[in-house]
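FORM 12-B: Structure-to-Sequence Request
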């Protein structure tokens, strides 16, 4: 199927989603890999991982052109090689998502809602966070919390952040799509973020973007 959405969030930011339905050879025809990418691609043993890798490059090409290339830092955080945009990437099952912005940091996460996430909720929820008791919405609500925290983890560059202890999602009523508030608080970061979510088939998708400088936290806050 390829690119199923190419959504301009504003004049600076674009979000794209790719649905992987192509065979490996068909995906290879859609991309132009440089020598470093070919080496990285050859290191993947599974077909699914190769398809994920190729789908990211195919989607990036669809969004901003074939000349765009991704590099990674020591923490495996992606960057555009030419530094022209901030980028965040997520993939799960058959979907790949990319969020790009020329002037704002970005974070995106998507998850295929398949597992019994309620059984591991204690690993990522803290006491401030509230999840609906309605059976028909509870799993989606939990996945939105998880995706929101992953998106914030990414936008804050991952290091030194506990998803349960340092990231809090304000209580919200779950809908098909909407906006939520999140906070990141560590000894180096004290920031609030607006996050946006939507549902596609059996996937939860959450993204955030913000032009911010890291602000030192108040040492009195626990």
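FORM 12-B RESPONSE
SEQUENCE OUT:
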């Amino acid at each position: 199927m390829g690119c199923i959405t190419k959504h301009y969030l504003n004049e600076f930011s674009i979000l794209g989603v790719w649905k992987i339905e192509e065979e490996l050879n068909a995906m290879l025809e859609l991309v132009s890999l440089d020598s470093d990418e070919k080496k990285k691609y050859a290191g993947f043993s599974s077909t699914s991982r190769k398809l994920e890798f190729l789908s990211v490059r195919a989607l990036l090409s669809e969004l901003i052109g074939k000349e765009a290339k991704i590099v990674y830092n020591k923490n495996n955080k992606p960057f555009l090689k030419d530094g022209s945009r901030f980028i965040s990437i997520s993939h799960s099952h058959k979907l790949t998502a990319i969020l790009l912005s020329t002037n704002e940091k970005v974070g995106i996460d998507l998850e295929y809602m398949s597992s019994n996430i309620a059984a591991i909720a204690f690993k990522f929820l803290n006491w401030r966070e509230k999840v609906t008791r309605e059976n028909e919405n509870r799993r989606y609500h939990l996945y939105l919390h998880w995706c929101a925290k992953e998106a914030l983890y990414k936008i804050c560059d991952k290091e030194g952040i506990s998803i349960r202890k340092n990231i809090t999602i304000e209580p919200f009523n779950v809908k098909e799509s909407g906006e939520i508030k999140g906070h990141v608080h560590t000894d180096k970061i004290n920031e609030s973020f607006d996050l946006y979510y939507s549902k596609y088939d059996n996937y939860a998708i959450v993204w955030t973007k913000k032009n911010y400088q890291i602000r030192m936290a108040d040492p009195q806050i626990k």
